[in-house]
Structure formats: structure tokens, C-alpha cells
Design goal:
TIM Barrel; 3 domains; 20 helices; binds S-adenosylmethionine; binds iron/sulfur cluster
Length: 469
């Protein structure tokens, strides 16, 4: 792959962002209310509006923003949480991102790439716990070519085991060229996720000193190339702690607007991971712009309100208490039962820590997370139906099609949750889960739909699987 930035121009207006953050400070309550109302009316916010929300410091106005985000989530998306797990395929890397345990100069990292057999074992271990959706993660290295990525995704799809199989694979890997994206698309991936890390170009140059990732423009253009290759299900993200978080949120918004304006479709998901400690990586222990818990909550709420149609991902990097709280403000997907070392699911050894990218904040099992979710009234969902029925961009559907959540998402969440409970859960999760399914089914307003869901649940109890709308 030849990296070329000829003809590329950044669409991140650094000076304008700085000016907006400054000029929009101290918005009065009436303006904050108007902006929240616009978002609740399902309109994406403009940069000056997002800047105004970001700059709010008054505790009461901040509370208003949190409430607005909570209301938007409840109104549009309801109480489902989609679950997935990361699968690390290999940690070889030619880049030197200063915050990452996999960076080339990290001598403490034990390098490893799953063999074909190990990949099957990892997949089986995940299937065995009940997972249906994965994100496969790769370092950046010539051995992880588009063909290799496609082959490994296919291996995962082909692995049927015990009572299940993986039904949707998303990717987090280096940006490819258009041809490379086409190759990966051909095996039927879900979302292709690339984080810009920081949208501040100067900071980016300092923190990515070596390798192909040192080109800010090549990375920024990555999702454009994916679109050109026909992948319209894309995830954007920024790694929080590298630069001012308000600037990064503005960067995410400008990226969103750029994709909307260029391709008529915005990002499918937005991620905003905070930097976690990583072995042999001092920078990650002391990130220069650490985001406090207080700011993190505010940030999640502002992102929710700014791009009401997108999915929002919160990973197990975050500790349990934070996960529990910010879920209220618009999170649609979380990972659970995650391991982030290469080969960890099937064979954890004493070297595992040295093959891991960073340290997780939430190490509960999938079953424990599901138990807690159900107890709190969330419906855990393993739904892959839109993707498999060719309805691409499920979040857009949820958002744009009136009644879509009631007709598709909630019933599918209930069915996939029931499948999990029958096949994989512990007795205590089964008890809490069945009670939730019963009460949620009873709440379905449409008589025909309620009956149809009850019928499908009965078929499932009788042994049928993989039922969806
Ligand atoms: N190598 C590919 C890349 O860099 O795009 C994809 C895999 S990389 C392992 C996935 C993401 O992990 C990166 O985009 C970065 O945001 C995140 N990451 C790296 N170091 C981290 C750390 N110390 N804490 C939290 N996230 C980190
Ligand atoms: Fe390599 Fe990605 Fe880690 Fe950078 S973030 S060192 S590219 S694995």
C-alpha cells in the first residue's frame, strides 16, 4: 500500500474551533434550552451550538444538559444496550504512538499474532460465553494486509461451535487504501472503526512520530476512502487525554459534518475512550490532558445531543461506576467480558499482561454485566438483524424511521436476550432476565406485535434459535 496525501486537505478548522470555544462561553440558560430542544427535535447541532454546550460551567446548566441527553436516549433509543467483545488478532506494529502498549519502541511488549488454530480457539471461547458481536483489533503491520484481515474475519464467521456463532464482526484496524477497503468489505464486515486519536494536527504530529500513522491527513482521509470503497458503516473516535477534550468533541463534530456533506451519511458510531495505563508506556500513566470523571459525563451528554442519530460506544476501559452512570446519557453499545491481550480468551498465561494493549477498568464476566444490566432495567441485546437483513445503518433506522424501535429493535433485543438466557446464562441471570423479558413484552403496545413476540419466545423455549424481525 502506497501512502499518498497528494490533493488532500484537512477539513478540521483549528482556528475556528478555538474561536468558537472561546466566543460561545457563558451561553445564557435560554440558549442552552433552545439548543437541547433542537437536539430533542432530532436535528444534528451546528458547531457554534456544540461549542456553547461544551463551554457551560454553571452546575445547574450542566445538569440540564445531562437531563437533555438522558431524555433523548430514552425517547429515541429506549432501554436497550447492545453487547460486544473485542478480539485482538495481533499486536505487531510499525508505528510509535506514544500512548500505546503495542508501539514499536516498547521493549516490554511481548509480540504475538494468533495462528489460524488460535483464532478459532479464541472465537470458540467467545461463542461459548454467549457473544454474537465482535470487534477484531489489529496493530498496523505489513503482515496485517487487507487480505489477511479479510481471511481472519472469514475464519471467525466460519467457526460454528457449541450453541452459537459470531453473527457480526466489526473492525478496528489501520486505515487502508480504497482497494484494501474493498477487499475487507467483501467478507461482510459490520462497522470499520478508525479513531483519529487527536484532531489537533500539531499534537498529532508530536504523538505519532514514526510509521504510516504519522500522517495526519492519510488517517483523516481514511473513512473517506472506506466510503469510496462502498463501506458506509463507519466508526469515528478520539482518544481522550491527548489534547483538550472540548477541541476533540468539536473535531468529532466536524468529521461528522464532513462525512454527511461528502457522502450524505454520517458516522454509524462515535467512540471517546479515555487513555488507560499501558505496560512500558509512561505517557499513558500521565496523559497531558486527562479528562476528569465530571468532564467525561458532560462530554458524553454533549456528544449525545450533538449527533442524535449516531450510536455511542463505551468500552470496558472505564470503571464500573462510570459505566453505570454515563449509560444514562446516551450510550448504545458496551463491551463485556473483554480481554485485550492477544490469545487471552482461550489461554491466559503469565505473559498475557505483556501482550495487552492497556489495562481494563471493568473486568466483570459477560454474565455478571448482563445480570447487572437486567437488574437495572436495561435490555441486553445481541441483535444483528439489520446488518444481516441488509438494513445497513441500524442506528439511522432507529432514529429516522418512526416506530422502528418498537417494530424491530425492542422485539429483536428481547429475542436475542432470551436466546442468551436459554443457552448461556447463570441461574441468577436467567431468573432476573426472564422477569424482565416478561415485563417488557407486556409493555409492547401493539397487540399483534406483542403476540408475535410471545409466539417467537415460545418457539425459542421449544428449541428454535436465531429468530428475528
Ligand atoms: N492499530 C490500529 C490503530 O491504531 O488505528 C487499530 C488498533 S489500536 C490497538 C485501537 C485503538 O486503541 C487506538 O485507535 C487508540 O485510540 C486506542 N488506544 C491506544 N492506546 C491506548 C491506551 N493506552 N488507552 C486507551 N486506548 C488506547
Ligand atoms: Fe500501533 Fe495502533 Fe497502538 Fe498505534 S495505536 S501503536 S498504530 S496498535
Amino acid at each position: 500500500m502506497k501512502i499518498s496525501t497528494e490533493g488532500l486537505k484537512s477539513f478540521i478548522p483549528t482556528n475556528t474551533i478555538n474561536e468558537l470555544i472561546e466566543s460561545q462561553a457563558h451561553a445564557p440558560e435560554s440558549r442552552v434550552r433552545d439548543i437541547i430542544a433542537k437536539s430533542l427535535d432530532k436535528q444534528r447541532l451546528e458547531p457554534d451550538e456544540t461549542a456553547a454546550l461544551l463551554s457551560v460551567s454553571d452546575p445547574e446548566l450542566k445538569q440540564l444538559i445531562l437531563q437533555g441527553a438522558h431524555e433523548l436516549k430514552e425517547r429515541i433509543y429506549g432501554n436497550r444496550i447492545v453487547l460486544f467483545a473485542p478480539l485482538y488478532v495481533g499486536n505487531e506494529c510499525v508505528n510509535d504512538c506514544v500512548y500505546c502498549g503495542f508501539r514499536i519502541s516498547n521493549k516490554e511488549c511481548v509480540r504475538s499474532t494468533l495462528s489460524h488454530e488460535q483464532l478459532i480457539e479464541e472465537t470458540k471461547s467467545l461463542v461459548e460465553t454467549g457473544h454474537k458481536r465482535l470487534i477484531m483489533v489489529y496493530g498496523e503491520h505489513p503482515i496485517y494486509s487487507p487480505e489477511y484481515i479479510a481471511e481472519t474475519v472469514q475464519t471467525v464467521y466460519d467457526t460454528k461451535y457449541s450453541k452459537g456463532e459470531i453473527r457480526r464482526v466489526n473492525i478496528n484496524a489501520a486505515p487502508l487504501d480504497v482497494e484494501g477497503f474493498r477487499t475487507v468489505k467483501s467478507v461482510g464486515i459490520g462497522t470499520y472503526q478508525i479513531f483519529q486519536e487527536t484532531y489537533h494536527e500539531e499534537t498529532y504530529a508530536r504523538l505519532h512520530p514514526r510509521g504510516p500513522k504519522s500522517s495526519f491527513l492519510w488517517r483523516l482521509d481514511g473513512l473517506d476512502r472506506a466510503m469510496k470503497a462502498g463501506i458506509d458503516d463507519l466508526g469515528i473516535g478520539a482518544l481522550m487525554g491527548l489534547y483538550d477534550w472540548k477541541f476533540e468533541v468539536m473535531g468529532l463534530l466536524y468529521h461528522t459534518i464532513h462525512l454527511e456533506q461528502t457522502f450524505g451519511v454520517g458516522p454509524h458510531t462515535i467512540s471517546f475512550p479515555r487513555i488507560e495505563p499501558a505496560i512500558g508506556t509512561d505517557f499513558a500513566n500521565h496523559p497531558p490532558h486527562r479528562v476528569s470523571d465530571e468532564d467525561f459525563k458532560h462530554m458524553v451528554a454533549v456528544i449525545r445531543l450533538s449527533v442524535p442519530y449516531t450510536g455511542m460506544i463505551l468500552t470496558a476501559r472505564e470503571p464500573i461506576a462510570i459505566r453505570d452512570e454515563v449509560m444514562r446519557y446516551g450510550i448504545s453499545q458496551i463491551d463485556a467480558g473483554s480481554s485485550i491481550g492477544v490469545g487471552d480468551y482461550s489461554s491466559k498465561d503469565e505473559e498475557s499482561r505483556k501482550k495487552s494493549q492497556f489495562v481494563l477498568g471493568d473486568t466483570r464476566s459477560l454474565d455478571d454485566v448482563i445480570y447487572e444490566l437486567a437488574k437495572s432495567g436495561y435490555i441486553p441485546s445481541f441483535c444483528t438483524s439489520c446488518y444481516r437483513a441488509g438494513r445497513t445503518g441500524e442506528h439511522f433506522m432507529e432514529f429516522a424511521v418512526p416506530g422502528f424501535v418498537k417494530r424491530f429493535c425492542t422485539p429483536n433485543a428481547l429475542l436475542t436476550f432470551a436466546e442468551y438466557l436459554y443457552d448461556f446464562s447463570s441461574p441468577r441471570t436467567l431468573a432476573v432476565g426472564m422477569e424482565l423479558i416478561e415485563s417488557e413484552t407486556a409493555r409492547i403496545e401493539d397487540d399483534n406485535m406483542r403476540q408475535s413476540v410471545r409466539d417467537k419466545l415460545a418457539s425459542m423455549k421449544a428449541g428454535q434459535r436465531d429468530l428475528y424481525y
